[in-house]
Amino acid sequence: MPNINQQKLLKENENLKNEIRQLKSRKKYGLVWDSEKEPEKVVELCKERLPILTEESDKEIKTGGGEPVNVLIEGDNYHALCVLNYTHKEKIDFIYIDPPYNTGSEGFLYNDRIVNREDSYRHSKWINFMDKRLRLAKNLLSKNGVIFISIDDNEVAKLRMLCDEIFREDWVDLMIWRKSGVGRDGKMKNTTTFRKDHEYILVIFKNQKRLNKIIETPDFKNEYGNPDNDPRGAFKAGSISLKEEASKINHKNYYTVVSPSGKKFTRQFDIPKEDFDKLNDDILVSKQGKKVSRIYWGKNGDAVPSVKIYINEQREITPYSILMKGTTTEGTKELENILGDDFSSLRPKPVKLIKTLIQLGSQKDSLILDFFAGSGTTGQATLELNTEDGGNRQFILCTNDEGGICTDVCYPRMKKAILGFSGKEDGVKHPPLKAKLKYFKTDFVDGGATDKNKKSLVDKSTEMLCLKENCFEEIARGKHFKMFKGNGKKHLGIVYDDDGIEPFKKEVKKLGENFAVYVFSLDESVREEEFEDVKDFVELKPIPAVILNVYKRIFK
To answer: Does 177 share its domain with 292?
Structure first.
């Protein structure tokens, strides 16, 4: 007979079994699609061949000295993302994408065939397509990275569920973008209900819910006046305090202020006392000789204080969930202004919208990625924002060349934006934007784990390693090694085989600089003993093992 403790354990064990049975029998709420019905060819290709990058050196663009290097990658974005999973794991701060909306009429391609409304697997193919790319993109996000995804009604619900699944430990939220301007007549095609003036922007926050304040210049003139003749110009009064009865006495911003007429106001304010005092002490004299501060006390100087929001002065505010920044018409006109042709069929996003998103989700030195780059709006927006706020953001754009979108649209747009252009529509001469651009194409090497294939991968890894280390300026080369320099003191060395070790070390001793050194090895060793005499100058890394390990994880 079992004793009391054994009986208790047996009973607990049976209870646990019952709970497991109940959990297994429950119906689950989630997104299910047939990902095996028609596997994507670009994904299957990587099981036999491994993606790499090759440079189109004749397409390099530069305007000067030490500007950061931006990158345009021509090729399928799945292959580009695989390369970036090696070169930029956890390094990307901001991602914006404008994927195909899967409307059934826009020409979304899957395995080189158009997916139209008659395709019964239209939604499954689109979800499978997005799932593969978003999982790769997730690996690229830095610890505070943010993703913005433009989408419309056709797939927004399924995309939200997909993101909830992929980014389950992160935050997923939704914004609305009003894409149409005011004053349209409402005679919309293909609608029997109401015109669709909006699209959606899905927002994914890595680890924490965080956006910057939005910088806004007020432009609603009918809301503004200047009752006290403030020399700074017209303003409207913005509330900075709660009503006294709603105030929290123990709040850190609960304090007393005194109006010009001597009236006291004790309550909880939205800003600390020291900030209130700074605004109140910022005095200008009006034409009538009256002293005017940035705090408005009402017509008679004894009303509840409010802060002045000036019509021509930028301010930082909490971003709205509804964005009214640019329209689809503006996006088309911007592209036509640069390139001169008719691009109404592309419906590119406006620069103003993408600049706003970058400003919300990045810092001035952030790395920006758009792997559905299309016409290149994200690249232009990044460069313009850098010019406006003194930033050094770098971008990576990835796009295929379907219909010449890369070679005939995206690249020419980047070239003109960087070198400067005369507007085809506005007639304005737009100055150069200080920047550099490197142009790469995706390519492949055989993926079998033979010594010959490993050597081939190393021989063709130069561009990937330059991209990984952000070092592109070649400073020395031999038959079996190369050296590159980046901005600042960063240096890269590549030793392609054993015959390159001694001449490489000779150059290191001559230069006296520190190098990240990638050394060919058939395993994961780097033979530290052969670099003993330059150990203070080199950080050794084996190739191709580290690249193969990344690809093995992706293509398993």
So the answer is: no
